[in-house]
What does this fold into?
Amino acid sequence: MKVQFTSCTLASEWCWAVKDSNDVCGICQVTFDVACPACKMPGDECPVIWGVCTHVFHLHCIMKWHESSTNGETCPLDRSPWRTLAA
It folds into this structure.
């Protein structure tokens, strides 16, 4: 049996493995499938990062938070010491 394709349309979709697909970054309030305000495209250039406290943020948002925070490196949502969850 020989099969010949005349056309083919491919599609794909990706998302971060967050608990709720409608969840948003606690700092910029943008969903994780969209880039943070500092980036143009979502994906590997704008990753998400989980804290031990289970809060999730865009990497750029949490970095900017720590640069401007007077409380040291704390979680913006619960003010616990920020520690990144090991992969």
